[in-house]
Amino acid sequence: MNNNLAQFYGWLHLQASEIRTGMGILWRDAILRQLLLISLLLNSVSWLLSALLTSKVSADIIGLHHNIYFGITLIGSPRQVYFIPLLGLIIIAANAVFSYLIKEESRFFMYLFAVSSSLVNVFLILGVAAIMLINFK
Q: Which parts of the chain span the membrane according to its record (predicted)?
């Protein structure tokens, strides 16, 4: 039993060391680092807008989606707004993992994943801004 636990611990340590090395390689690429920092900055703007929105709301229910044909089509708790920046953070993490997995094959796809993270976060900021417009116009 102790031998299996020691083997598992050794394997886990080896994997963590490999991930640190791979992420270090990704971090040393200046373009990738700048794109990742831009994505994280945009995601923090999304978090700040969500916090601002929930602090300004006095009701327990807000409009979360608006349609020009039907009006407000989705209502919910103000806390549900935090799913939008959380989704952006998950996408940044997933794209970092994908970049790590293909780090030696093609730099083009690494940059594509990083740019897509930034672009997704721009659209998520627009989504939070739309929710602000729905509720405070």
A: 31-53, 81-102, 108-134
Overall domain count for the chain: 1
Q: Return the DSSP state at 76.
A: E
Domain containing 66 equals 30-136
**Dist. CA 5–CA 49, nearest whole Å:** 46
pLDDT digits (tens, 9 = 90+) for 30-64: 888 899 999 999 999 999 999 999 998 888 888 88
30-56 helix and 83-101 helix, angle to the nearest 10 degrees: 170
Residue 59 gets which letter from DSSP?
A: S
CA nearest to 64, candidates 15, 131, 14, 12: 131
> Which stretches within the chain are classed as H helix?
2-28, 30-56, 83-101, 107-136
